Amino acid sequence: MYNIAVIPGDGIGPEVVKATTTILDKIPVEFNYTYADAGDECKEKTGEPLPQETLDIARKSDAILFGAAGETAADVIVRLRRELNTYVNLRPVKSLQPDKYGDIDFMIVRENTEDLYIGDEELTDEGAIARKKITRHASERIAKYAFNYAKETGRSKVTGVHKANVLKLSDGLFKESFYKIAEEYPDIEANDFYVDATAMYLITNPLDFEVIVTTNLYGDILSDEGAGLVGGLGMIPSANIGDDNGLFEPVHGSAPDIAGQGIANPAATILSACMMLDYLGENEYARKIENILIDVIREGKDVTPDLGGNSSTQEMAEAIASRL
Ligand code: ATP
């Protein structure tokens, strides 16, 4: 039995999380869910976007399933990643509809603890300053994770992404660390691009990418671009992994424009739960759910409006659950 902390959060978060647990409840793996509050509504109710109790529940669990946070995202999800020291953010960009989007399949390995996302900002007389933190330790650690990931999954190339021509010291260190670690993996090709060029190559040559390793901010932006390549934000899952904790969440946010309508695409959260099953060692069920989801999307009948269907979030989930 696995203890799972479930943090549905705001907006479409509770809808896509419910759809996902409907599916998880159909596999012969026992989950003990502990629901915990966080996000905008929680802040309104309790005064705190991420109460200590939620943090404690998250820390004690075997894995965390997270929906979405709205305006308070920086105080909730960014803080959770930091508190739990989940230093790797994995964001697979995979086309589930190759006939529509091409056979795109690459992994973004995003450094999750530093960069501009440390939130060290201050007002000055002229305006404001934000500090960007890049350490040798975190840069080597994330590069190592990316090369190991490539090795274990049979990928042949890792691309480091930075802006070392302008940010000579900080991104320069990230690039240097990338190539230092690359030397330990002579069988895996290593190359690097500037982040602006990468943004273009993802559109012009998406099939050239296998594993991208990059800093926190660039990883955030490039993964939304990746979502655009394979059918939108409703399709991209993510995993936050550290030495002691795993937190799984869709890449999309709370999508206030469609919240409460029951039309959010649950695929990103269902795929995040598959990443959670992999993390827990339940790979067989991860593949099973993933394959059924792919079938349902390709058939195009029981899917949400963003995928061209008329089904609700919950109807799409039930169509998947009924085949398990
Ligand atoms: P937040 O501030 O919480 O990040 P946001 O609206 O700025 O919210 P997202 O929630 O990431 O950003 O989504 C941007 C848009 O993409 C949404 O407004 C919505 O139209 C669309 N979108 C996101 N997730 C989904 C989904 N699961 N299904 C369908 N459409 C989605």
Can you characterise this structure?
By secondary structure, this protein is of the alpha/beta class. Helices cover 42% and strands 20% of the residues. The chain has helices at 13-24, 40-46, 52-60, 73-83, 98-101, 136-152, 170-182, 195-204, 216-229, 267-280, 283-299, 313-321; strands spanning 2-9, 31-35, 63-68, 88-94, 105-111, 121-123, 128-130, 157-162, 189-194, 211-214, 237-241, 246-250. The strands form 2 sheets. Strands 2-1-3-12-11-4-5-10-8-9 form a 10-stranded mixed β-sheet, sandwiched between helices. Helix 1 crosses helix 10 and helix 10 (267-280) packs antiparallel against helix 11. The model has no long low-confidence stretch (mean pLDDT 96). Bound molecules: adenosine-5'-triphosphate. Adenosine-5'-triphosphate binds at residues 12, 16, 68, 70, 73, 233-234, 252-258, 264-265, 268, 306.
Write a concise synopsis of the structure shown.
The chain has twelve helices and twelve strands. The protein has 324 residues and is of the alpha/beta class. The longest helix has 17 residues, at 136-152.
Topology, please?
Blueprint (H helix, E strand, L loop, with lengths): L1 E8 L3 H12 L6 E5 L4 H7 L5 H9 L2 E6 L4 H11 L4 E7 L3 H4 L3 E7 L9 E3 L4 E3 L5 H17 L4 E6 L7 H13 L6 E6 H10 L6 E4 L1 H14 L7 E5 L4 E5 L16 H14 L2 H17 L13 H9 L3
Parallel strand pairs: 1-2, 1-3, 3-12, 5-10, 8-9, 8-10
Antiparallel strand pairs: 4-5, 4-11, 6-7, 11-12
Helix pairs in contact: 1-10, 1-12, 6-7, 8-9, 10-11, 11-12
The structure holds adenosine-5'-triphosphate (ATP).
